[in-house]
Write a structure and sequence with these properties.
Length: 450
């Protein structure tokens, strides 16, 4: 397990971005050949949408001996695309050629065999050169029916960042077929209590569960991580102060600062879409009320005034409304109010325990946790912003909690104890393509990061 610490890691990401901008990535694609005109192949909102069949052979060495990275890069691209539910990657054992000997350029492809024998509509071919601590790769996407090149990318990365290279080519493939940005280079922050002695520390991993890094090391108990949409901040709650508070950590490595009033207990929240504000819950008397914190001025203003406990605020994508959980009507239920705290309205009416709401980045759905009729299990559901059209995404398999949307609104991460231990999972917004990632809980999906 690699645990170099989050701040150096995040700074490393920024340095890598500049490196790519100035060197390899800015060098652009290789000769485009018959590069196809831009177009969209999949209408991801159509109920008639079907999976696109792809073939992704192992990348071949362009100079030097075979390296395990050739197959590993192909496997990461395959896994990224398959988990969207939009692609099906054909079994490599059905491929008609040896990938270590076959050409990767347009004029070297036998498209009729890939189309008619393998039944692949898209073909990913690539080659690489490993030199010292860097890897250079050329990767292409071909349309087998038209015999045309759809994508051509040339990458130059530190060898240790080969997974990021694969994720970014998968992003390009997804955008080529759907017209939408991919989320394969995003990260998930979460809470780990992997040992009885551990009270809860914040960790970060890639969206596929790889490349685990530790953020907090205070040993006092930390939870409720939340990313700012601009990627500049990571908020979390901690018992390292007395009373416990909410802290915001700059992702560029600067000094963190406390959000809530020093004499009041604060617990986690979320940022506004423009990252200018952070809404959280602060103890007031015997209850918790919602408070708005302005990042630039560090001024707090109270948002809610109820007799119940108001917690877990989440902004709508336009920043005009906030969804939150409140006990003002008895048990916890889901409410929506204007961003200035006015006009609160209850939107959940099924069940006696509904909490942890998160507004989709698309604005069309709200996800939350709900206790099912057996009074033990907890499921993840989504509803329209007015509370209608409830859809259950998990099936009463243990306690499924803390949903968090991907930045494209097409996936959710959550924690579940269905295996007997609390673990982090991801699934599509339809509840399909479920994948277990790591031991942990309270996941928070990052925005797209440089």
């Amino acid at each position: 397990m690699n645990e170099p610490g989050a701040r150096p890691r995040l700074r490393g990401r920024l340095r890598l971005f500049l490196f790519l901008l100035l060197a390899g990535f800015a060098a652009g694609p290789p000769a485009p050949g018959a590069l196809a005109a831009s177009r969209t192949f999949i209408d991801i909102y159509s109920p008639a949408a079907r999976k696109i069949r792809l073939a992704i052979p192992e990348l071949r060495p362009l100079d030097g001996p075979r390296d395990p990275l050739g197959l590993q890069i192909a496997q990461v691209i395959e896994e990224d695309l398959s988990r969207t539910g939009l692609f099906y990657v054909q079994d490599r054992r059905s491929y008609p050629e040896n990938p270590l000997q076959a050409g990767i350029r347009l004029e070297e492809q036998k498209f009729p065999e890939w189309l008619n024998v393998v039944k692949a509509e898209g073909l990913v071919k690539g080659g690489y050169t490993v030199g010292g601590n860097s890897i250079t790769a050329e990767i292409f996407l071909y349309d087998t029916a038209r015999g045309a090149q759809e994508l051509g990318k040339r990458f130059q990365y530190p060898r240790s960042s080969w997974r990021l290279m694969a994720h970014r080519f998968a992003n390009a493939v997804l955008e080529r077929y759907t017209g939408e940005k991919g989320i394969f280079d995003t990260q998930i922050a979460f809470v780990s209590r992997s040992s009885p002695a551990e009270r809860g520390e914040i960790y970060i991993m890639d969206w596929d569960g790889a490349d685990l890094r530790r953020v907090t090391r205070n040993g006092m108990g930390n939870n409720a991580p939340a990313w700012s949409p601009d990627g500049r901040w990571l908020a979390y709650s901690s018992f390292k102060s007395s009373p416990p508070g909410v802290f915001i950590l700059p992702t560029n490595g600067g000094a963190e600062f406390r959000v809530n009033a020093p004499a009041a207990q604060g617990i986690g929240g979320n940022f506004s879409p423009d990252s200018r504000f952070f809404a959280y819950a602060e103890r007031t008397g015997r209850t918790y009320q919602l408070v708005l914190y302005e990042m630039a001025t560090r001024v707090r203003s109270r948002l809610s005034r109820s007799f119940g406990i108001d917690v877990t605020p989440s902004f709508s994508p336009d920043g005009r409304r906030i969804v939150f959980a409140s006990g003002r009507s008895g048990g916890p239920q889901i409410y929506v109010m204007n961003a200035d705290g006015s006009d609160p309205r209850r939107i959940s009416f099924q069940g006696t325990y509904n909490t942890e709401p998160r507004w989709s980045p698309r604005g069309d759905r709200i996800a939350y946790s709900t206790r099912v009729s057996d009074h033990v299990s907890i499921d993840i559901v989504t509803v329209n912003p007015d509370g209608s059209d409830l859809r259950r995404l998990t099936g009463a398999q243990g306690k499924n909690e803390s949903p968090s949307w991907s930045p494209d609104g097409r996936h959710l991460t959550f924690s579940s104890d269905r295996s007997g231990r609390k673990e982090i999972y991801v699934m599509t917004s339809a509840g399909t393509e479920l994948k277990r990632l790591q031991l942990g809980q309270e996941p928070a999906w990052s925005p797209a990061l440089p």
